Amino acid sequence: MSQAFPEHFLWGGATAANQCEGGYNEDGKGLSTADIMTAGSHDVQREITKEVIKGRYYPSHLAIDHYHRFEEDIALFAEMGFKCYRMSINWTRIFPQGDEKEPNEAGLRYYDKVFEACQKHGIEPLVTLSHFETPLGLLKYGSWTDRRVVDFYLNYSEVMFKRYKGKVKYWITFNEINVMSTKSWMAGGIDSDDEQVRMTAAYHQFLASAKAVQMAHQIDPENKVGMMYAGHFSYPNSCDPEDVQANDDFMHKMLFYCDVQCRGYYPAYKLKEFEREGIVLPTQDGDTEELVRGKVDFLSYSYYLTHVVGKETDLVMKGLNGVKTGYNNPYLPTTEWGWTINPMGLRYSLNLLYDRYQIPLMIVENGMGAVDRLEEDGTVHDDYRINYLREHIQEMKKAINVDGVPVLGYTMWSPVDIISASTGEMKKRYGLIYVDVDDQGEGTYKRVRKDSFYWYKKVILSNGEYL
Ligand code: BGP
């Protein structure tokens, strides 16, 4: 039995516009939900500000200046042998307020150049249409609580599918769509814990995704469109049936987002919950058929950690950066931010999702945030990151070769040091490439290849034989 990865396995890495580009207001770009959050810190969640905080460093102002350095960065990705580069188009570069009829040509031209750079290096772009970058201008409608935002999103999607036809054929509609249930501001500019509000917003995102899938197929039959799930997988705190039920309830709170987009309808357990809670979905004629017709072509997800959930754990996902969620897992080490390191959980998650949906899967985020050290001689010895990635790739290999799970590719998080979404730090470094910039945006912005850069290059070159 071959122990290799499939021949055209999409090895690569992932970024998000708001966490790497900077240029938060350049060339006509409007403000997005990611642009008005506070900087956060090691154990302080980024929060929502009601205005842009001038002069105070926070991610979207500076990030790592990918907006001006994307050619250098993509050339470095190519040096590692990338087959695929997952990135997001910042909606507010294309439609600054979100509701314009005509797109911002300067924003289109920027991404023209990004995809030209990818094409030059033979790298397949995988494009997330909305990665926590909802235009602030849509807040006047109530953001995703208002059905008109579905049409604004579809107008944006149509421009993207047509402009980049032939350059991009792998798309993701929303990043971590289930984050609507944990951090609704990031997921869609919803500043409310009210479940009716959140489920209304989620409904409109499901509808928008389903319509975008169909539109993408009509514009280019080559297009493959996926959903993206924040991989919240958890184990029961004990074999006590109450702990097992509590864990099952948590998993269903998250997996229902995949149920709707992979099966094309709301699961019975969710509709029963809505009945009990008095939640009413804003359904209109034809929506049910749209959800069925707009099922996704693949399920992509992020995998970083696993949780433990039990009857006493009110796992409300207060935030993952160092804030413990649920019980500790005494069998697992953690990162400096308290995230469990559980490679075997990756194999478990691949099997769980494939068993449930029977469609191709893709890991589009997997990585380890750590405080890296730039040595005097310009090297960065991140063997902890190599070990983390190696062990996760080994488990992915088992899922493919032992369990028969079809995995399209693996875009690790992140090829280059990038702003942390939850804490806004640069200190929480994920990259295979070090960027000389600190939490205040000070530094030379020089790129430095870490030990993991050279290691991952060998992994890709050997198609996963070398680990
Ligand atoms: C995921 C996001 C990514 C990235 C990642 C790492 O939820 O999709 O954008 O941020 O988390 O988490 P963090 O950046 O908070 O360390």
TrEMBL record:
The keyword tRNA-binding does not apply. Keywords: Glycosidase, Hydrolase. Belongs to the glycosyl hydrolase 1 family. This is Amygdalase. Pfam families: Glyco_hydro_1. It comes from Paenibacillus albidus. The keyword Hydrolase applies. One of its GO terms (molecular function) is beta-glucosidase activity. The lineage of its organism: Bacteria, Bacillati, Bacillota, Bacilli, Bacillales.
